[in-house]
Amino acid sequence: MNEYLSDPEEAKDYLPRYKYIYALVAFTFVIFIMRLWYLQVFQGEELRLFSEKNRFKIKKIQAPRGMVIDREGKILVDNFPGFEVSITPQYATELEKTAHIISPILGLPTEKIIHQVKVEKKKNGPFRPVVIKNNLNRDEVARLDRLRINNPGLDISMTIQRSYLLKENGAQLFGYVGEISKDELPKYNKNLRPDEQFSQGDIVGKNGLEVVYDKDLRGSSGQDFIQVDARGREITSLSVPEFIGEVSLTREPIPGRTLMLTIDKDIQEAAQASFVAKERIGGAVALNPKNGEILAWVNGPSFDPTEFSKGISSKMWTELINHPFKPLRNKVIQDHFPPGSTFKAIVALAALEEKEVTKSSTVFCPGFYKFGRRIYHCHQKRGHGYVNVVQALEQSCDVFFYKMGLALGIDRIAKYARSFGFGKRTGIHMVNEVPGLVPTEEWKQKTFGEPWQPGENLSNAIGQGFFLTTALQLAQAFTSFANAGPVFQPHFVKKVLDIDGKVIQDIKEELKFDTVTGQNTEVKVSKQNMDIIREGLWMVGNGPSGTAKWHKVANTPIAGKTGTVQLFTLSADQVFADCKSRPIKQRHHGWFVAYAPADNPEIVVSVLAEHACSGSGGAAPIARDIIEAYMKKYHPEKFVAAAPKIIPNKETPDNGNAD
Amino acid sequence: MEMQIEERGFLKKLDFNLIFVILALNIIGLINLFSATHDPETVGINRLFTMQMVWFSGGWILFFLVTLIDYKVFLKMAYPLYVINVIFLIVVDLIGNIAYGAQRWLDLGFFKYQPSETMKLVIALVLAKVLAEKSPISGLGLKELAMPVFLTLIPFGLTVSQPDLGTAMMIASVAGSMLLFVGIRKTILISLIITGILIIPLAWNFGLKEYQKNRVLTFIDPNRDPQGAGYNSIQSKIAVGSGKFFGKGFRNGTQSQLDFLPERHTDFIYSVLSEEHGFVGSFTVFTLFIILLLIGIKIASQARDKYGALLVVGCLSIIFWHMFVNIGMVIGMLPIVGIPLPIMSYGGSGMLTTFVCLGIISSVSARRYIF
Questions:
Q1: Domain A265-651: which CATH class?
Q2: Residues A333, A432: contact at Cβ < 8 Å?
């Protein structure tokens, strides 16, 4: 280091500079002390009074959540005002007395009120009001209001309650809302700008559309600059100190946006009514094949999401969680099962395309098929005789498809399955969708470490092996049959509107894939072969031996395919014979996927009927009801002329061994 | 000379005035923090208070360690420390870009290290070195200015882009104070001021984020901002003023105890003090800071070389500007900026940096030249 650095003579160079530092320090000292004197001595009295008698606080004003309306503007989800009574622990100096007085009015035991206040105080701090009861009636409000003066900390406030007008109907679709808890806050605020941050107690979507479109529905909260007294109660008219002046710190909340769904309330209600009347477990979806708009979406059993807005009781929550048939599940996309015989449409098309069969070639079905040392049964014990591809679909002949499966092999079938959208999520804007599964030889080797067995080609060809699919995936695949090719992205939301009804976002149909032109698909199928399958599907609903011929709608040909998911491997004799006599949890699931009118389809319906024994008996009647509701609404003329012939559902054979 | 000082013994070398002032601030700070963090609901001592005990114990250990070290060691370490710190700033910037939003620290597990915090100190070290080697009596010319300005602009830019405007302004203030102390040629100084006046509107339009602009505008006109800043400013003024002459008493500050004050244990710690101990309390603490600064200036003027003098001036400017901006904000004379009050505010990074600063001052003092 240079020697001169250590030279004190050098450091003396700076001596004349220190006067500037002294000046700066002195200046700061004088100015700050004057300011402190001004605030603390000159204005001190006024500010002291102000801080003791009343205080300023920012009160958050929750923005009303956006409404949800159906395609015609009918309200599905709305907000209703309600009153709630709360106790703020910090100000509740006579908690026991207060609890004792309000106990008979609310019909709650005194100890329970005290306990609740103490528990929440520990959890959320003394300044957060503890809600004792919500949904107060007018009488309760009037009686409690009088008690407020002598019971510090007791308060009545207005709340906005999210209300689901369809009650149990569509609960899994709409979802529900709830308060953000203290523990959830960091997660919610992680990626938000400072001015968008949530605070404890804010209402957010927790499931279904409420969570998917939370950003649109939520709006942004406003705030009010209020004065409160020493007990935390709001004061309206008190003079504002001079130094605050004419400050207006109020900001109006911006209400959430309205979601206009593609759902048709009438069809939604018909679907739900059908589900409830038949006490079905499962899910159903109806969509418009021409644009992918979902018209109805129901799941059974269900629950009333409004209970969550009220603050669901732990008893009810436990019941929902432990219910054997899982009411909270969005079964349309969250439950996947083997497609059963509905999958035969895909295998038939694959066989035609791969030239393993022609339209006219036939297969003899004696009622079973012997492969290796095992006998594979057809569901029809006596057999179907000679069947061609159309008849095989109509009667759902298993033997025909055993042979196709063997001829094609799993990898060729998988290619067609994937092209129709199986094995991956449909991409619908909804939480908890499962992808399903399309098996291949490679997949089996990877997953089980075992090679693919030739025998597995047989069971997978009738949709009973490793394949897994959801009701929505089936609806999507059958849209391709309905339209002879194109499939549009399934979606719920038609428009997003602001509070004045101005359209913020207009969601148009979006072509997802087309199996006939080969757009976005692995394989391209010919129009001729597609039409052969469509003919087969038509025969299912209209042919003399069709598996769904009992379920008709006046003047409306329905095409589709039934399917049954065997939960257990059974011997030939017990396959269907005693399904209904088994405990419900051991009964088969039924599928039915259909489109109507078959010549120019306007609606595709996919129904999953869990533990309903069969597709034709369990799922098809619901699909029929939904299609009928649709036709009655949009084509009432078809029901005027040809009313006489009513096909009662009772004729449905109970053994349901049609597929 | 070196030997002479060593012979006088370590205890004798210490500047006890300096230590007493720091200790006084430290004790008042802890009492005050106890009140600010105390939760009337719980009987035990708040975790933040316990942590602060850990920080200030660590701070004092650092203080004595740094005092023992001859400050010339920092001369050798200035550039390596500078490079390492800039690298950390770049790392934080990159992480901040990946994870949305502002990230100012690196998680070291036990401790969240904030590189911009240590950068204030490192810039003082490196500028002291550069300026001690080259500073004509006539004042700094363009040639001499180039290097220090360049060295300042790199960390300044990185900190601005985090974005942490408050700390960036601190880095610039420390550097600016040191340059002005050494002296800049009049012609250059005047042209710099003019350029500054021209650049400010540009920086305003393109450099600042919306919320940063809001803070400045809110300071000028509190009616503007219905959201955070205006509210904080008003609440802080109420807290300070309502303390009157003698204060409301320990743990009796209604503004601070009842959650009206935001960030009361960090940026608004001085308003807790002012509310509970009134003019007497706020005057005492402020005066202790002024005495600390005066002791520091005296140490600088007695330094045995230019480097020592500049080091002390740099460290003092860090403490001064923090105090100036923080107290100015609390008493409603400056906009709301997230700058803590040295020694008093809660916080590990700040506490440790402050004590290293004080240690350096003490180290220069221990090796001062007795005239």
A1: alpha beta
A2: yes
